[in-house]
Each structure stands twice: as structure tokens, then as C-alpha cells.
Amino acid sequence: MTDGTTENGAVRADLVLTGGKVWCGKGLPLCEAVATFGGRVLATGTAEEIAPLIGPDTCVVELAGRLATPGLNDAHMHLLPYGTSMAEVDLRTSAAPTLEALLGAVREQAARTPQGGWVIGRGYDHFKLDVGRHPYREELDAAAPDHPVYIVRTCGHLAVANTKALELAGIDEETPAPQGGLIGRENGRLTGLLAETAREPVMAVLPDATVADLVDSIERGGRDCLSRGLTSVMEAAVGIRDGWTEMLAYQTAHRTGRLPVRVYAVLMGDKGRTVLPQARAAGMLSGAGDDRFRIGPVKIFTDGSAGGKTAAMTRPYKGGEERGLLCLRDDELLAMVREGHREGFRFAIHAIGDAAIEQVLDAYEAALAEAPDPDRRHRIEHCGWLRPDQMERMARMHVLPAPQPAFLYYFGDLYLDVLEAERVHESHPMRTWIDAGLDPSASTDCPVVEIDPFANIYAMVTRKTDRGTEIGPDHRLTPEEALHAYTYASAYAAHEEGIKGRLVRGQLADIAVFDTDILACAPDDILSTRCDLTVLGGEIVYEREGASA
């Protein structure tokens, strides 16, 4: 036991979890109990060793054999948009598996919305719809003739707008596609499909959210995270939709006690969507803040998604010459990264295809050569489809990958439709990253896919899709390695490994308790795992109704 008492033996724990299996972190001994004091881990050990730390005011939780781990940390998700999407039209496959169901959901929302008000939906996957295509604008027109409609594909990189929405955005048959974007047309007529930067004119005319609206979204999404055992997240793009108002909302949520989880906040610094001028004026550099809300890196988009065939590849997608879209010229990205790097910012740049990854590595290499910083830990978000030579460059510069293994679970079969099998099998190469010393984190990119950490852990352990297809089994991880990716590695990617990610004395007392022993159960049982209890800073913040105590 790590002794948590003072010399006179007066210290008693605030909270003790005992009688279970306590996983303190990769390579650390398994324990039976953990004690907390003042919001931090006080001690771990056997139940007998921890018992003297229990006083008359100590809250004692009987684990009854259950597994306790450090609180999970989703290293790349969109907390505010997730909370917002929970109040929008749910178009995920589980809710709208057919085109008619999708249109019905739009129709129902339009009936509840005043004439002229926006109908916004999120989560459809055209590959999984019964028609195997995106909805057409005319179909959305028929479902909601008196409303502008804007529905976003699950990846967040493609959307469909109806005629009223396109008119409000100033997009017509003569509008050229912008750099890094695509405006869908068939037979010279708009289909309503918009990809990447072509979505920005519609996003610019969407209703402005208030700070109060956004705080509601933050709180709504954060409380759902707690129910999954997630105590920390990286908000992957503050300012992506409502600009600086989103930062004001986060500050308000933090100040008023309505920020349920710990947040590492990424600053949008894209060419067309940026909050960097306001951040600079406020003196916000990467690393500023406190244990609940900390300023993270700068986000830039360089390409799209593999499922939408907009991730920028050096080799074409199957069945054609499409190679995806680069959102920026090389010189544009280089100038942006150089400037921010000199100022002390970290970067977390979205790059999925190998052509985009190459562009990002070139920019990082130039910035680091000009101003060396071996511990800056710039990141590549998603980083799904890279080459061996790029892996070597990442290792040399210690550029961290921030992948979403859950993409293989939810989108793996789609990837096999659009790319050759060998390219898919070598994608999201968790094992190779670990061997290269790059400590890959784990995340979902929610609401791109479900926030559910157990599908993500299952994908890391089995490399199987939701249909059971095995993809790249050489990259399977052990359950302990998967939990490490979701805890310590995610903290490391945020420069916070000194304060969280393991259950050791002095670290933040963030703990998750699960009803299934993920470390020892059959892989399929991981998918049905539930979080029974969540502790944040030594306080119980979630208890599942009906969970055994």
C-alpha cells in the first residue's frame, strides 16, 4: 500500500472503493481497493491495507468484485456539438434506417417548427440507407416545403440542404465549388449535396446559438459522458459552428458549475473558421487553464473523410480516379503552422488520407526545424491511412496520432467498399504506433460515431466491424493496452499525464466502475458492458440505477 496517512495518523479517506479489481494503469499491480482524499488518489492496495484509512465520515463503496479503472478519456470528440445533436433530428441508422424513415423524421420536426424555422438533423449514413445514396434536395423539399432543411452525414464532412437552405446560403446552379469543397450536381442541377468547404455558406446562415443554448448543450453532453465512465474529453473544435460564442459558453459553464467533465479545448484555427484572433487577444496559449478546463492545440482541417471519399489520398479510391480533397494549399498550411508554432501553440490537425498526412508532416517538420521543441507533441487527428515512411517521420518528430479505432467498428465494411482490402487492413495501425513509441490515444470523434467507449475498446481488442468482419488482426491490442489508450495515452496527448490517467497517489481521483471485467471477459462481452459508477475528483457524479452495490 502507498501510505496515505500523516505522521500522527490523522488523515482519513473521503472515499474508499473496496472489494473489487482495481486496475491502476498499464504495468501497475492490480489492487482490491482505492482511497481518495481532497479530490486526489490517496492510496491503493488490498482491502485490508486500505481499511485503516476508513473513518466515520468516509464514504465506502463496495465493489463486490467489479472492475474499477482510471476515468476514461475520449481524446477527440465534439462535446458541444454532441449535446446540441441530442436536441436535433436523430438521423442515425438506428433511428432512421431507410430513406422514408429519414424523410419522416424531417417531416415530423417540420410540423413542430414554426414556418420558416430551420430543420437540422445529424447522423445519416447514405451507404447504410436502403437506397444507398444521399437524399436529394427535392425529397427534403417535399418533406418540409415551408422550412430550410440541413442534414449532416455521420462523418460531419458532407451534408444535404434543401432548396430554401441553398437559397438562403446564396448557392445556385451557377455557383462554383470552392477550394477544398464540392457542390453536388446531376444533369446540371443541384442535388443539395455539399462537401467540406462548400458547406460553409449554409453554416454561415444557420441560426446563431446563444451562450445559454450552448451551455445547455455542454451540460447535456457532459452528463451523458459521465454515464459511460468518461471523466475527461478533448473538445475537438471550439468555434467550429458558433465562433467565439462557444468559448464564452465553456467559460460560463465552468464558472457556474455546469461543466460536468474535464475538457481539453481545441481552438478552431482554420482558414475560414477561426477563433485564434480572440484567443490571442485573451492570452490563451496551449496549456493555459486548470484541471477542469484547459486550452489545448489549434485545429485545422486538411481533408475530409474516407467514407465520404473526401480524405486526400495519393492513390485513387476503388472504381475510379477520385483521390479526395485537400482543403488548403501547401504554402497556406505551412504559414499557419509556422506562425502558431512560433507563438507557442500546439497543433491538432485533421488529416485522414496519406496525401493530407504528408502535407501536415511537411508543415510540422519546417516549424520544428525553425523553432525546435522536442516535447511540443503536435498531433495528427484521425491519421487513418498513412504509409510506413510517414510513420518513421512521425516517430522522429514525436508527432502523436489521435485515431478513432471505433471507425473500424462502425465504418470498416464501408472502407472495404471504397478502398482495396490491403489498404484497409493497414489503416489505423495501433500496434505499429505502439511499437514506434507514439502511445496512440483512443477516441470516438462523437457525434461522428457513438460516444460508447465499449465499442471502441472492442474494436481495439478484436479489430472487428459491427458486422463481424475482421480488419488487420495484426494490430489487435490486449485489453490492458486498449484501456491504456483510453486513459494514460489520452492524458499524454494532452500533456496531462502528470495529473491523470492512472490511479497513483497524488493524481486526480477520477474513477470508473464497470459491471464487466473488461480485462478478462470474452471479447464479445465488452460490447454489453455498462458503467455502474463514475467518480470525478473524489466525488460520485454518476450511479447507474439498479447497479449492484
**Helical run tally:** 19
Q: Any idea of the CATH class of the domain at 208-492?
A: Alpha Beta
Major sheet: size, sense and barrel closure? Answer: 8 strands, mixed
Poorly predicted spans: 1-7
Name the shape in a single word. globular
**Helix proportion:** 25-40%
Instruction: Tell me the Rg in angstroms.
Output: 23 Å
> What's the β-strand tally?
21
Strand content: 15-25%
Mean pLDDT: 95
CATH architecture call of the domain at 208-492? Alpha-Beta Barrel
How would you name the CATH homologous superfamily of the domain at 208-492?
A: Metal-dependent hydrolases
CATH topology of the domain at 208-492: TIM Barrel
Which class do the helix and strand fractions yield?
alpha/beta
Cα-to-Cα separation, first versus last residue = 24 Å
Structure, explained:
This protein is of the alpha/beta class. Among the domains are: 15-71 and 507-543, Roll (Urease, subunit C, domain 1); 208-492, Metal-dependent hydrolases (TIM Barrel, Alpha-Beta Barrel). Helix content is 31%, strand content 21%. It has helices spanning 47-50, 79-85, 99-112, 137-143, 163-169, 200-205, 211-226, 244-255, 276-281, 330-343, 354-370, 388-397, 406-418, 421-425, 430-435, 453-462, 479-486, 488-492, 523-526, and strands at residues 15-22, 31-37, 40-45, 59-62, 67-70, 72-77, 89-90, 119-124, 149-153, 158-161, 181-186, 189-196, 230-238, 262-268, 293-301, 347-351, 379-382, 400-402, 511-514, 531-536, 539-543. The strands form three sheets. Strands 1, 2, 3, 4, 5, 19, 20 and 21 form an eight-stranded mixed sheet that branches. A seven-stranded parallel sheet has the order 6-13-14-15-16-17-18. The protein has a six-stranded mixed sheet with strand order 7-8-9-10-12-11. Strand 1 and strand 2 (31-37) form a beta hairpin. The longest helix has 17 residues, at 354-370.
